[in-house]
Amino acid sequence: MSKKLPPHIESMLRVNQAGEYGAIRIYQGQLKTLQNSSEHATIKEMEEGEKKHLSTFNQLMVEHQIHPTLFTPLWHVGGFLMGAVTGMLGKKAAHTCTKAVEEVIEQHYQSQIDALEHDLHPLAQELRETFIQFRKEEIEHRDIAQERGASNDDNLLSRGIKMISTAAIEISKRL
Predict the structure, then answer these.
(1) pTM of the complete model
(2) CA distances from 158 to 62, 70, 84, 92, 101 (A)
(3) In the chain, what are the helix, strand and coil shares in percent, each to the nearest 5?
(4) What's the start-to-end Cα distance of the chain, in Å?
(5) What is the per-residue pLDDT for 174?
(6) What are the angstrom distances between the C-alpha of 132 and each of 60, 106, 114, 128?
(7) Cα 161 from Cα 50, distance rounded (Å)
(8) To the nearest whole number, what is the mean pLDDT of the chain?
(9) In sequence order, what are the residues at sequence separation of 6 or more whose Cβ sits closer than 8 angstroms to the Cβ of residue 131?
(10) What are phi and psi of 38, to 5 degrees?
C-alpha cells in the first residue's frame, strides 16, 4: 500500500484519468458513426493510444487509493455523444473535434509539467516524465487530425468543444 499523495498530485491523477476516459469515449462515438469511413482505422489507432494512457492512470489511481471523479458517468455519456455527433457531421467535424480536444489537453499537460518541475515529492518527477510523453502523443493526435481534414478555423464547433473540454478539466480536478 502506498502513502497518501499530496492533494495537488491526487488532483492531477484524477483529472488525467477522467480526461483519458473521456477521450476514449469520444473516439468510441466517432467509431460508431464512422464505421464504414476511411477514417475508421486512424481513429481506432488514436483510441488505442488513449487506452494506454488510461491504463497508466487507472493503475496509479488504484495504487494510491484515489477515487475517480464523481462525474465519470457524465463523461461516459457526454464523451460518446460528442464523438457520435461530430462523427455524424462527417470526417471534417470529427477531426475538428479531435484537434480542439487535443489542443486543450496539450495545454493542460503542459501546465502540469510546469507545476511539477520543482516539486520535491518522490513521485513528482516520474509523473512529470509520464506527462511529457503523453503530451507528445496528444500533440501527435492533434497533428493527425489536422492532416486528416480538421478545420483550420476557430469556428463555433471548435470553440464549443474547447469550452466543454476546459470545463470538464476544471470539474474533474475538484470532484
Answers:
(1) 0.92
(2) 34, 26, 15, 11, 8
(3) 80, 0, 20
(4) 23
(5) 82
(6) 16, 10, 10, 6
(7) 18
(8) 92
(9) 16, 109, 112, 113, 116
(10) -65, -15
pLDDT at 1 over 70: no
Radius of gyration, alpha carbons of the chain: 16
- Tell me the HSE value of 3 on the side-chain side, using a 13 A CA sphere: 5
Is the CA virtual torsion 29, 75, 4, 65 positive or negative? negative
Quote the pLDDT of residue 2: 56
pLDDT at 37: 85
- Containing 163, the helix (H) or strand (E) segment is helix 156-174
Bigger pLDDT: 3 or 150? 150
Question: How many residues make up the chain in this entry?
Answer: 175
Residue pair 149/95 in contact (Cβ under 8 Å)? The answer is: yes
Query: Which of 101, 89, 94 is closest to 39 using CA atoms?
Result: 94
- At 4 the pLDDT is 81
What is the tens place of the pLDDT at every residue in 34-72? 988 888 899 999 999 999 999 999 999 999 999 999 999
Instruction: Taking the CA atoms of 160, 26, 169 and 111 in sequence, report the sign of the dihedral they define.
Output: negative
